[in-house]
Specification:
The chain has helices at 16-23, 76-88, 108-121, 133-141, 156-171, 181-195, 203-212, 245-251, 284-292, 311-321, 360-363, 389-402, and strands spanning 2-8, 29-32, 41-45, 48-52, 65-68, 73-74, 97-100, 104-105, 200-201, 216-220, 258-266, 269-271, 305-307, 309-310, 325-329, 339-348, 351-353, 364-373, 406-410, 418-420. It is an alpha/beta fold. The chain has a ten-stranded mixed beta sheet with strand order 9-7-5-2-10-1-11-15-19-20, sandwiched between helices. Strands 14, 16, 17 and 18 form a four-stranded mixed beta sheet that branches. Bound molecules: guanosine-5'-diphosphate, 6-O-phosphoryl inosine monophosphate (IMO) and magnesium ion.
Amino acid sequence: MAVDVLLGLQWGDEGKGKIVDYLANQYQIVGRFQGGPNAGHTLYINGKKIVLHTIPSGIFHEHLVNVIGNGVVIDPVTLMKEITDLEAGGHEVRSRLRVAKKAHLILPTHKLLDIASELSKGEEKIGSTLRGIGPCYMDKTGRNGLRIGDILSSDFENKYKSLTDKHLRLLKQYPEANYDLKPEEKIWFEAIDQIRKLNLIDAEYYVNERLNAGDYILAEGAQGMMLDIDFGTYPFVTSSNTISSGVCSGLGVPPTSVRHVIGVSKAYCTRVGSGPFPSELLDEEGQKLRIAGNEFGSTTGRPRRCGWLDIPQLKYATMITGTTHIAITKLDVLNTFETISVAEKYKVGNEATEQLPYDITEGVKEVVNSNHQGWMQDISVNSYDLLPDAVRNYITYLEKKLSLPITYISTGPGRDELIVR
Ligand code: GDP
Ligand code: IMO
Ligand code: MG
């Protein structure tokens, strides 16, 4: 029995959902431990594209229980829409889903506060998904939040009103905020009625009982390490701990139960939203990556900023997360690049370093790239040995640089387009 962790090593959208869906067969439980509907995890099931926002990516496996942990923030409307859309597509959801009573609720006013806060920041905006994530976690840590368990209390409407009143007072500070709350509240309460009928559990007891009974759990991260509230590119981050420690606080499992940490990285780099991105390509090559990789956000549709893989950033991410195995995704996107570059070092002052400075925007003036020969061919094969030499050289180079095994190589969005070593 053990918990394995799967998380993003970059700025999100690394292809976590696809890898979780592939690995799910090896586990009895898949659990989300942080984030909320800011996440968009894309899976192809029977050739059909499905994007999950709150539901764990193990949902398409019959034998599996999927837990939405206490560390997640839940928008009832988004969650119920996700469930009903999946059911309309013929998928079984409710019997496979458990929701932690200690997970926090995103209120309609959290979304309004998110929008107002971003508007007030102007050029300095975070580039939030505007799903109410930041304001909801602020209420959690400010000890004002409402939790899933509260919807079972007879006093719930009063609790809702008192928190909403507080938010409305705050919104008065933002003169540009313009909203009509009533219709939002109506659909929110309708969704709450539906959520009451789901399997709401004391998830910390459930997962620990299952662990003690010998089960294996896969903890599915959302966002990526560089969006972590403590170690990411603050303040351009999300509001939760996306790193391995988030699993213990977000699911209630002890650190001693954690076995492997699978870190997912694209074969290049992307970021959606504002903030530092040292290896970003603002030229035609960046545009080529965006088109080849179809780099448009799964949640908001925004074009993703693109750049080369960044070794100092990845080393930092594997250090902080304790990564034991790497999954490289979207390698096929590089198929038409004659030369593949990698940011090997940052120029900080007059020195070339592999260490991230405290202030990346101010500190990193330039990156030092190395160049690698591209393979200029299709790589849809199912075994590592069948990959072209240039691909294997690139993988060996990365393994050496990161001192970690690259165990999974994804060569396309489909479930089976994956080489496991
Ligand atoms: P997540 O948030 O980490 O689960 O990633 P997203 O789903 O937001 O973004 C990853 C995108 O890349 C999705 O559109 C996936 O279908 C797609 N994808 C995943 N792996 C591969 C791959 O190996 N090759 C290609 N071409 N696309 C991939
Ligand atoms: P998945 O799980 C990529 C980014 C937003 C913004 C910042 C803060 O699909 O990888 P928030 O809405 O949390 O207040 O936004 O974080 N962001 C993501 N970027 N993938 C995600 O999730 C993201 N979730 C949030 O773009 O820059
Ligand atoms: Mg995503």
